[in-house]
Specification:
alpha+beta, single chain, 10% strand, NT_sf, globular, PolyA_RNA-bd, nucleotide-binding, nucleotide binding, Hydrophobic Seed Protein, Beta Polymerase, domain 2
């Protein structure tokens, strides 16, 4: 991707020096200005490494670029976000879009959400918008309610306090460095990855890049802002965020970043279980589940987060960089085809898929039994609908998966018995996935694998997943109306409405077992 340059500033110091640098004495004689710099001391003598962990290299260029030349227009910004931006700007405050939304706009992707950074104090934001509250104690932000949308607004002052806590507090500013650049730059240094360290002023139509984020976007690289070991020790959740970003964008990790993801993988077990569930949901519910699972496996994270599924991959002889597929990955690839960052599913759906697949691993089934089970889920347990549809299936199934066995089940009674038995196995699999003792023994046959008893699925969420399959064993539910066709109500799906979740579950399972491309 060609990156147009409006103003480009570059430091001339070697990054091995324990300093971070600021602009000084910019000459306007050319589009690439010659810059003399004065180093700015940083606490703990931390330095920013922009050389992919390879040693020496130049500090990143500071760029100010035209958003229009980058292909960004205000129409790409969601209407609720535009209303908040306009409200703050009219009161005389500086406003920027920051973080992943700027990255996604540059990539012409639909952002999952938009984050606003403003010069206003959070208390001033409260006065501007009627439906607004401050949330978070450690790192407070404002939630501004516009219709049914929540727009997050952070303040330079609040993020400045966060910046001081993490040990990278700049103690002085060179006289010739503009205060505005200095403030923006300090805020960017508190970000996790360079590609998330971009700022976009939608009114001046300028994108600010102080960390080399645009170059990393061009190179499809995920790189930490500060040295990766320090970054992940400071906040190990960045490991999971990095995997999520790389999986969603199909980016690679910079060498140093990749090294310390592997080196510090075990640290994620210290995270709050709710936080782990949140990060896993971001990975598996927004259209990049297969890529995320492959990365979790590649970097040794799957054994910690999902030991049962890691055991399955080991038993399949699946290598860390394996490009082959299997039934687990195909199920999630099929799910990915139905989702997107702005069209996610509820977490109960991907947990249901995990439990269903484990049940098939524990006891492989005839493809028609699997079809009957998925149809029963879709139809709310109506056995007459199940038999009427299953007996019409004539297309071949995918023969690559050992989880599927040809048993030639001829009688309806035998088919329904097998279907009920599968439902029992799915329920048992769900219980095992939420049992710390069982999870801790999932990798017992592989002594070199890390031991993990991590269970991040809450009892309440497990009950919600169980309700998806309940109809198979209990029979037809009163007043349940099955969906027809393949149209998806994404609002209901994101909220976890049972009818919609069952609809998508059945589609994913059926299309995995009987892929459309195998039709005659």
């Amino acid at each position: 991707m060609a990156v147009p340059q409006v103003l480009v500033f570059r430091t001339q110091l070697n990054i091995r020096c324990p300093f971070i640098f600021c602009l000084h004495n910019v000459r306007k004689s050319s589009s690439v200005a010659a810059v003399a710099v004065e180093p700015v001391k940083v606490l703990k003598n931390q330095s920013y490494n922009a050389s992919d962990g390879k040693g020496d290299g130049d500090a990143p260029k500071w760029k100010k670029l035209s958003s229009e030349e980058l292909g960004i227009s205000t129409s790409m910004i969601a209407k609720p976000t535009r209303l908040v931006l306009n409200g703050l700007k009219k009161k005389g405050f500086e406003v920027y879009l920051v973080g992943g939304c700027v990255r996604d706009l540059i990539l012409n992707r639909t952002p999952k959400d938009f984050d606003i950074l403003t010069s206003a104090e959070l208390k001033e934001v409260l006065k501007i918008f009627q439906r607004c509250e401050i949330v978070g104690r450690r790192f407070p932000i404002c939630h501004v309610h516009i219709d049914d949308t929540i727009v997050e607004v952070s303040s330079f002052t609040a993020t400045g306090r966060k910046f001081k806590r993490n040990g990278y507090n700049v103690v002085r500013r060179p006289p010739a460095c503009s205060e505005a650049d200095f403030i923006r730059w300090k805020n960017c240094l508190a970000r996790d990855f360079t590609i998330n360290g971009l700022m976009f002023d939608p009114f001046a139509k300028i994108v600010y890049d102080y960390l080399g984020g645009l170059e990393d976007i061009r190179r499809a690289k995920v790189r930490c802002v500060i040295p990766a070991n320090a970054s992940f020790i400071e906040d190990c959740a960045r490991i999971l965020r990095g995997v999520r970003i790389a999986g969603r964008l199909r980016f690679r990790f910079a060498r140093e970043t990749a090294h310390f993801i592997k080196e510090l993988a075990s640290s994620i077990s210290r995270l709050d279980k709710g936080r782990i569930l949140l990060e896993m949901n971001y990975m598996l519910a927004y259209g990049s589940a297969e890529a995320s699972l492959r990365l979790l496996w590649k970097f040794g994270l799957l054994e910690i987060l999902l030991p049962i599924q890691a055991s399955y991959l080991i038993s399949q002889g699946f290598r860390r960089r394996d490009r082959r597929s299997n039934m687990l990955l195909t199920l999630f690839s099929t799910l990915d085809n139905l989702l997107a960052p702005n069209r996610p599913c509820h977490s109960s759906l991907w947990i249901a898929i995990l439990a269903f697949h484990k049940a098939l691993v524990d006891r492989p089934r005839d493809p028609l039994v699997v079809a009957a089970f998925s149809i029963a889920v879709h139809c709310g347990g109506s056995l007459s609908d199940v038999l009427g549809i299953v007996r019409k299936i004539s297309q071949p199934h995918d023969t690559r998966f050992p989880e599927l066995l040809d048993q030639n089940i001829e009688s309806d009674e035998a088919l329904l018995d097998e279907m009920m038995d599968l439902a029992t196995y799915v329920e048992a699999a769900l219980q095992e996935m939420t049992d710390e003792h069982f999870v801790s023994r999932a990798l017992i046959e592989y002594p070199q694998a890390p031991k993990s008893d991590l269970v991040f699925i809450s009892w309440t969420l497990a009950q919600k997943v169980s309700a998806i399959f309940e109809c198979v064993r209990r029979g037809k539910e009163k007043d349940f109306r099955r969906k027809r066709g393949r149209k998806i109500d994404y609002e209901s799906l994101a909220l976890g409405k049972l009818r919609e979740v069952r609809h998508i579950f059945a589609m994913v399972v059926f299309d995995t077992v009987f892929p459309p491309h195998l039709k005659d």
